[in-house]
Structure formats: C-alpha cells, structure tokens
Amino acid sequence: MGCPARKVTNGYSGSALMKDLDHALSLIEAVVGAVKVPVTLKTRLGWDDDLLNAPELARRAEAAGVAMITIHGRTRCQFYTGMADWAAIRAVKEAVTIPVIANGDITDAATAAEALRLSGADGVMVGRGVQGRPWLLAQIAAALYGTEEPVVPCGADLADLVIEHHTMMLEFYGVDLGLRTARKHLGWYLDAAAGDMALRHAILTSTAPREIHRLIRRALRETARVAA
C-alpha cells in the first residue's frame, strides 16, 4: 500500500488505499485469513500532509493480524521528492507492538543509523539505495551490528558478478524478456561504478548476450583503471 505511481493509485490501489482505511482493512483481513504465513504491510505516512493516518492504519492492521509494518517516510503526494521524514515514523512505532521498519533515503550505514535513531524503528528497509550495490545491506549490517564486512567487488570481480546476474536473468525469463528486464539492473551497476556513457549506451541497447558481456568487462575494467 505504498506505491505512489499514478497508474497504480488511479486504480485505487497502492497508497491510494490510505484514503479509505475501511477498504484497506477489508483487503488486509482477506489476505490474513487466506494464508498460513505471516502477513506484513508496507505503506507511507499518509496520502498528503492533511491525511497522515499511518498510525491509525498500523493499529488496525495489527488488530487484523499483520505481523510487521514498514513505513516509507513520505506521503503519497510527495512521491520521492524532498527527504524522507524518519522522525514521523516514530508515531507508528508508538502506536503498535509489532515490529516497525523504517524506509526511505537509506543509502549507507550512516543514514541507516540515523533512520533508526529518529524513528525508533526495529529495522530498516533499503530500496533504491541498493540498486547497483547488492552488497550494501551487508555493509550496513557490518557497521551497525558487527557482522562480517563484505568484500566489495570491483574491476574483473564486479564484471563477473554482473555477468552472472545477467545470465541468471536470461535463464529465468528467457532471452527476449530477460534482455528487457535486465537493462535497468545493468544500468544501475554501471551508474554505481561511474561507467563510460558511450559503453553504457552500447550495453543497454545490444540484443546479443555475448556482446553485452564483452562490453561489461570492458566498461568495468576501465572504471577500475580510472579508480586506480
């Protein structure tokens, strides 16, 4: 119930459900009653600044059997503008006894720690911040909880990881759909590595997997050379 996209909210789905909590609860109750696994809920602070009803939704969701709730620290009408209001999530944390997860603008260990401090939440959810950096969650865990620090790949090692990810997507979706689905992931990897824009364009427009993999190795080899 957190998606702000117009194509979703125009169908009275996603975060539009925050404008009608009775309807939202009917959906939550139906899901909880239909499955034997824990049901979690993700939503936003509210529809807009005049309808900040996440605490009420959280209370009612907990009563309906929801096991955990994640709050993105923006309203629907903010979309992704401005900064997530982690402190506003605290009202949700204080309204329920189930775990509350803070979300929005968490891009590293420092922002994760600050989100936890301001919200009082039990954990954080990372979305856009992990795009192109799938090791980020392990980095945050290492900084906050003393778990093992991950090895961050670069150069040839990063190319191997990206190519493995790409190959697995082609195997899962089939080549035609896989190529289209994988483009955004390849773009995120290349953006995070500050790759050459001309090579980026060639990689994202090619329809030949072997050529894509050759160009990925070239692009990431060159970023490693620049970093050195």
UniProtKB/TrEMBL annotation:
Q: Which InterPro entries match?
A: Aldolase_TIM, DUS-like_FMN-bd, tRNA-dHydroUridine_Synthase_C
Q: Does the keyword Oxidoreductase apply?
A: yes
Q: Where is the DUS-like FMN-binding domain?
A: 1-216
Q: Which residues form the signal peptide?
A: none
* Record has Cytoplasm as a keyword: no
EC assignment = 1.-.-.-
Q: Broadest EC class?
A: oxidoreductase
Q: Which UniProt keywords apply?
A: Oxidoreductase
| GO MF annotation list | RNA binding; tRNA dihydrouridine synthase activity
The protein depicted here goes by the name tRNA-dihydrouridine synthase C
Species the sequence originates in: mine drainage metagenome
